[in-house]
Amino acid sequence: MTLVVTGGAGYVGSVCAQHLLDAGHDVVVVDDLTTGHEDAVPAGARLVVGDVAEVADDVLGAGGVDGVIHCAARSLVGESAEKPAKYWHGNVVTTIALLDAVCRHRVPRLVFSSTAATYGEPESSPITEDAPTRPTNTYGATKLAVDHAIGTYAAASGGELGAVSLRYFNVAGAHAGAGSALGERHTVETHLIPLVLQVALGQRDEIAIFGDDWPTADGTCVRDYIHVDDLAEAHLLALDLLARGDASVIEKAGGHLVCNLGNGTGFSVLEVIEACRRVTGHPIPARVAPRRTGDPGVLVASSARARDELGWKPTHTDLDGIVADAWAFARSRAAG
Ligand code: UDP
């Protein structure tokens, strides 16, 4: 198939693009390179530099596109509180323009990078797709709005458009393939594992633990860490499902299937820091800091639907293995 990956110069998008190429697909990456990196675009993919809303019509209008994987997004929770317009425009308005182009040019398949942030503070754990969606931050609200929009476009398309929203939990690790290493390279880093590894690299003195008085076994927040390679595989399986002639699962879902993606196992902040200590051999000083605004205590996915409907099974479920891949990537970046 010929597939367009928006945000294919970013962390998740570049790994998805690599998996698609490895599976023999033709890949066109669309990225404005504001947070992505040109050298992260896998060799073999064609790069179109531009704002998704501005170039979608040309890229899809050229014809022959079998599907879009839409990863391009503004994704900093803290920033989304300070600059809501950047998030409503960057995530919602942009995606509506993309959806319009998808429908205008009759692209039959769409896979969207959604997020656990659509759920907000969960009432029960693990979180299923039927759980209430009450995002506690603007980022999550914009992603939820896009999920709703996709559902309505798919339903109104009369079967012409099939879509899958994948709600990622905590994506981590790195892809190590032939000649390329693809991992997290955020200019503003807010995620736990890369921050802890920065301590091991001597780039920061200590890691702040955001609260140790949560109602969890060791008092620190629990998250569901999923390896980026497992995540990318789910995108390929979603495309397969959409490409199958008997896409009854998609029909039953009204043209739009929502699936959580996580390992189904939660690890606490302290467990992550311990794993980083084991993997790096560095003592990694840590200090308890106040809770971070908007953080739920526990976020763990039920991935039963992804397993049942997509046939997905995460293979990198060991926390030390996930950290080891992130560490290899961080060290290679630090070595230049
Ligand atoms: N966290 C932390 N210190 C940090 C960064 C994150 O204690 O410097 C915690 C955060 O409160 C959350 C977990 O680590 O419970 C994962 O945070 P991250 O930002 O990686 O992902 P999120 O769950 O917010 O999407």
From TrEMBL:
SUPFAM superfamilies assigned: NAD(P)-binding Rossmann-fold domains
Root EC class: isomerase
The keyword Lipoprotein belongs to this UniProt entry's keyword annotation: no
Domain NAD-dependent epimerase/dehydratase: 4-246
Subunit-structure text: Homodimer.
Family: Belongs to the NAD(P)-dependent epimerase/dehydratase family.
Official protein name in the record: UDP-glucose 4-epimerase
Source organism: Actinomycetospora succinea
